[in-house]
Amino acid sequence: MKQDEADKSRASFPVLIAEDDPVSRKLLEKVLVRAGYEVVSVENGRKALERFDERFFPILLTDWVMPEMDGLQLCRAIRERDSDGYVFIILLTAHDSKDAIVTALEAGADEYLTKPFNHAELIARLNTARRILELEKSLKKANEEIRILSITDPLTGCYNRCYLSEHLPMEIKRARRYGHPLSLAMCDIDHFKQVNDRYGHRAGDCVLKAFVQRIQKSIRENVDWLARYGGEEFLIVFPDTGTKNAYCVAERLRRTIARNPIRIQETEIRITASFGVAGFDSAAADEKTSAETLIAKADSCLYQAKRKGRNMVISSPPAKT
To answer: Hey, where are the domains in the chain?
Structure first.
């Protein structure tokens, strides 16, 4: 790793120092800043916890004996917290007995340095902490990527059936809890088999991707969401939205899709889509209203749109008690 990259890596792991002795505190600051670390220092454990309330520190360097809250109490308090990530704790103390070391580790410390400590050894321990935290960060990133893959449709990039099954019931519970409406729109590309038969399955895949992109551009980011229900069928979830407004969005989508052909290389493919909209007003909805009943209602409306000629939106009024 080049020197500038190493400096950036150290700076991305700010260190919080808790040390009551002002001379020792200044010395620690000087050593760590010289090594390229971002440093914030306080004089006791209580103030260290206050700093953690303001921002997250991945590395904590703390003295054992301090007024108001000592190092062991601080270690325990940090371990009991829900943090944004793992906090690597190095405890500094004059105690060097085996019992003291065991006590420190049991309190939650990761490393233990006795005073007076060697500056080079301290930096080496901090660099070890940084490597461990970088490994933890990369592991969290890999787990997040795996999680995203598990809930994402691999072809279109929207959510998959698994995500729908897990999150739609949660949306219904939230709507009930806060007294908000909720609507769904089941949509289906009309005569999609003809697209595959005429242009080939690769072109059909491109049509599905373009269809999803157009929907995602037309719904509210981080509020509404889209899931592939199966084949060329998709379900749009509209939180905090009544059926009438969801119908208006679906109608706007229908017109956009019908008026704008999908270009694949030199070929223009025109498609239309049918929509079935259903929803409920949480203030009037039956307590038995579930994800399955809402989907079935939207699917029934979609079937009516197909039967009446396609390229249209059919809506069901909110469920009544």
So the answer is: 3-147, 161-315
